[in-house]
């Protein structure tokens, strides 16, 4: 799957896990360092699965720390 950074940011926007504009997130920096906590991440994973039509395993979930990580994962699907 060829997901783009903009598509990913739109999923974040729709998930409403943050009041911050997703365009401000640095793709290389772990989301936890950008104000997204573990509960927010669980919610985001749900929205990623729904928005991109993928299933993200619990073992893969822990490796998705940044937007770059998520995009790399989605490209394998």
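-> sequence recovered:
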């Amino acid at each position: 799957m060829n997901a783009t950074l903009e598509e990913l940011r739109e999923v974040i926007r729709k998930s409403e896990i943050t009041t911050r504009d997703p365009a401000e997130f640095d793709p290389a920096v772990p989301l936890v360092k950008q104000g997204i906590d573990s509960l927010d991440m669980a919610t985001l994973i749900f929205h990623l699965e729904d928005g991109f039509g993928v299933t993200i395993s619990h073992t893969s979930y822990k490796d998705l720390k940044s937007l770059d990580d998520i995009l790399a994962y989605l490209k394998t699907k």
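The chain has four helices and no strands.
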